[in-house]
Amino acid sequence: MLTLSSRKVETRNFRDDAPRTVVRVTGQPDRPRALRGREAYLSAHGDAPDGFGMYIALSKNAGALRDPSFTARTVILPDEFDYLGDGDVIRLWPDSGQARVLYRRNSFHNHFLLTERCNHYCLMCSQPPRDIDDGWIVDDVMAAIPLLDPTTPEIGLTGGEPTLLGNDFFRILRAMKAYLPRTAIHILSNGRLFKTLEFARRYADIGHSDMMIGIPIYSDSSTIHDYVVQSDGAFDETIQGILNLKRHGQQVEIRVVVHRQTYARLPQLAEFLARNLTFVDHVTFMGLEITGFTRANLDSLWIDPVDYQSELYRAVSFLADSRMRVSIYNHQLCLLDRRLWPFTRKSISDWKNEFMPECEGCAEKQNCGGVFASAKIRHSDHIRAIAPP
């Protein structure tokens, strides 16, 4: 598991009132002069070519950057950030010694949290909502977008509920289109605000060539769905939102987190989707991540994946037979019915992806998505190494 943020950052030669800043890192000492003042030079050996607006080093490599005679703005990171590389983007709070890596150029798992506010209170929410004024996050995302490599394959946008940003939501999407026209954009949303046709139209009018919105539906029963998201009326508004998005020709993915409250009706949900939403672009069945509200509600959510294989197989095979695109995320191959293996994807973000000790020597390890780092809290008793054929 990678360390993306720290409160143990050493900063030198910043003003006491230095503002929060978002900056791109470079390891190239010969960057054009016009760019150096806006970038942070990543010093691998304590070197400091002149002209850069900031200098960054790991603690073990700081060397001369700690010398009192060096007066440029300097950031010394804990050694856990040794993965930091050319083209990465970080957010820095100089006054409090905090830093967070916002973007890693060589990763396929980049995303931006747009807000912590949400109009759901899902039982298994991995990012528990907070009713706070966090508009500063939008400022930082807008500052980061022009710094990203335009060849980035995909960027995720998450929350909270991103659509609650209103005009700022659309402002971010327009910026993504302008600076990253070839980058796929994947947005996680509960879809409810799209119940208004005008809101769906504004989204469609962005006109990005590759933009998909992932929307959860947890059951064919509105009662179960509304219970899982802890919001009355959510199911009906979500379905209307999906219909409005597809009316405007937008890509929609249905996301189903499988747990004790949802597994039993997976086959009925699959039939509902195939009969009523057959035009959606992708359906994913997702394993449970043991973090956020999931920890507090674990006793009512946890079920060993081996115990819902029948329901999962019936759901996936029904959708596949209905010629719908379907995938399985966040599951380990050793726990799945082998007939489901062709539908599995290595989906867990690289910074929180691990393998259990039981996985050592597994013949399928290179094909398996592994587990969330949080799986140490609770995981299947049936995880095992698969013997070579």
Helix content: 10-25%
Distance between the termini: 30 Å
Give the overall shape, derived from the CA principal axes. globular
Q: For the largest sheet, list the strands in their spatial order.
A: 1-8-7-3-4-5-6-2
SSE order: EEEHEEEEEEHEHEHEHHEHEHHHEEE
Radius of gyration: 23 Å
Q: How many strands in all?
A: 17
Average pLDDT works out at 96
Largest sheet: 8 strands, mixed
As residue ranges, the low-confidence spans are none
Structural class: alpha/beta
State the domain count.
Answer: 2
CATH H level, superfamily name of the largest domain: Aldolase class I
Total helical elements: 10
Write the layout of secondary structure elements.
Layout: E1 5-6, E2 10-12, E3 21-26, H1 33-36, E4 39-42, E5 54-58, E6 74-77, E7 89-93, E8 98-103, E9 110-113, H2 136-144, E10 154-158, H3 167-179, E11 184-188, H4 197-204, E12 211-216, H5 222-229, H6 234-247, E13 251-257, H7 266-276, E14 282-286, H8 293-296, H9 298-301, H10 309-321, E15 326-329, E16 353-354, E17 371-372
Parallel strand pairs: 3-4, 4-5, 5-6, 9-10, 10-11, 11-12, 12-13, 13-14, 14-15
Antiparallel strand pairs: 1-8, 2-6, 3-7, 7-8, 16-17
Helix pairs in contact: 7-10
Q: Could you explain how this protein is built, in words?
A:
This protein is of the alpha/beta class and 389 residues long. Helices cover 23% and strands 19% of the residues. The protein has helices at residues 33-36, 136-144, 167-179, 197-204, 222-229, 234-247, 266-276, 293-296, 298-301, 309-321, and strands spanning 5-6, 10-12, 21-26, 39-42, 54-58, 74-77, 89-93, 98-103, 110-113, 154-158, 184-188, 211-216, 251-257, 282-286, 326-329, 353-354, 371-372. The strands form 3 sheets. It has an 8-stranded mixed β-sheet with strand order 1-8-7-3-4-5-6-2, covered by helices on one side. Strand 10 (154-158), helix 3 (167-179) and strand 11 form a beta-alpha-beta unit. Helix 7 (266-276) runs parallel beside helix 10 (309-321). It is globular and about 70 Å long.
